[in-house]
Amino acid sequence: MELHPLIANRRSPRAFDPDAALAPDVLEALFEAARWAASHGNTQPARFVVGLRGDDTFQRVFDVLRPGNQTWAVRASALVLAARATTDDRGPIPNTEFGLGLAVQNLVLQAEHLGLITHQMGGFDHDAAARAFGLPADVVPVVVVAVGVPGDVGLLPPDLQAREHAPRVRKPLSETVFTGAWGNPLLPES
């Protein structure tokens, strides 16, 4: 059986067009997709802080990135700080990582559908990000997502150029999907 092209073609490139901007309707589509993600008990724990290249929010997200990510993320059209709300009016929310992950994946797949590229980064100072945006104590930053239009790979340092062209590699299902007992593959090698 064939994977859907949105999944099969999705990558996490670093080569963004430094001149491209995202229109308001594109941003709305990305965050509508995120909003409709499944979550534990429909708690919807995903929260986003969005900076568009050239604005103060973009700069503050950029400033908390690790230097290696800064070398290429500067060219993204948007930097999105994705966080998880851990409580609501009923108390602690369970499985917030799962809810945020699903929301980010919806955003990523919607971007792919629109011909955009995304790259998720854990390489940032989480505490500095929380301070930079005054996040409440019950909102935890998890990932930054760079969003934009594909750009010239030649703008990247040589080591990252090579990574852009490298084939996507995934562990075989025999190492990740089990039945009966841990380590007993459900599916044969593929």
Residue share in helix: 25-40%
**How many domains would you count in the coordinates?**
1
The strand line-up of the biggest sheet is: 1-2-6-5
Can you count the helices? 7
> Helices and strands, in N-to-C order?
HHEHHEEEHEHEH
Q: Which band does the percent of strand residues land in?
A: 15-25%
Look up the CATH topology: NADH Oxidase
CATH architecture group name: 3-Layer(aba) Sandwich
What is the CATH level 1 assignment? Alpha Beta
The count of β-strands is: 6
Rg estimate, integer Å: 18 Å
Quick one: biggest sheet?
A: 4 strands, antiparallel
The coarse overall form would be globular
Q: What is the CATH homologous superfamily assignment?
A: NADH Oxidase
Distance between the termini: 12 Å
Average pLDDT figure = 96
Detailed description of the structure:
This protein is of the alpha+beta class. The chain has a single domain (12-152), classed as NADH Oxidase, CATH 3.40.109.10. Helices cover 34% and strands 18% of the residues. The chain has a four-stranded antiparallel sheet with strand order 1-2-6-5, sandwiched between helices. It has a two-stranded antiparallel ribbon with strand order 3-4. It is globular. The mean pLDDT is 96.
Helices and strands in order:
Blueprint: H1 5-8, H2 24-35, E1 46-52, H3 56-64, H4 67-73, E2 78-85, E3 87-88, E4 91-92, H5 96-113, E5 117-121, H6 126-132, E6 139-148, H7 158-165
Antiparallel strand pairs: 1-2, 2-6, 3-4, 5-6
What is the structure about, briefly put?
The protein is α+β, with helices and mostly antiparallel strands and 190 residues long. Helix content is 34%, strand content 18%.
